[in-house]
Amino acid sequence: MADPRSGRVWPGSGWTDLILGPGHRFTACDGFITNLHMPQSSELRLTSAVAGRELLLNLYQDIVVPERYLFNEFGDSMLIV
User: Fold this and answer.
1) Which phi-psi region, left, alpha or beta, contains residue 68 (left: φ > 0; alpha: ψ -120 to 50)?
2) What burial letters (b/e) apply to 42-61, b meaning 16+ CB within 10 Å?
3) In whole angstroms, what is the distance from residue 55 CA to residue 81 CA?
4) Which residue in 55, 50, 58, 1 sits closest to 21, CA to CA?
5) Which residues contact 73 (CB under 8 A, 6 or more apart)?
6) Which of 31, 63, 67, 77 places its Cα 20 to 30 Å from the Cα of 8?
7) Are strands 8-9 and 2-3 parallel, antiparallel or unpaired?
8) What's the pLDDT tens digit per position in 2-50?
9) In the 8-state DSSP scheme, what is residue 63?
10) Residue 37's CB: how many other CB atoms inside 10 A?
């Protein structure tokens, strides 16, 4: 459970149909650590919601692909704060 006005989060249980993607405004996220994800994956959409689509695309084009970083489970990762 979250209170969007205060940014506080409490433990809870249940299901949701919420899909986070570019344009989503987070109210309770200080940082995000994740692997590098393949184009058009749902994980990449979530990561672009946190970092911003243009910033993430530029990062992939300027650094990740030219430097031959590895993708998926056994690949490199990033920390977004």
Assistant:
1) left
2) eebbbbbbbbeeeebeebbe
3) 13
4) 50
5) 35
6) 77
7) antiparallel
8) 777 777 888 889 898 888 888 888 877 888 898 888 888 888 899 999 9
9) I
10) 20
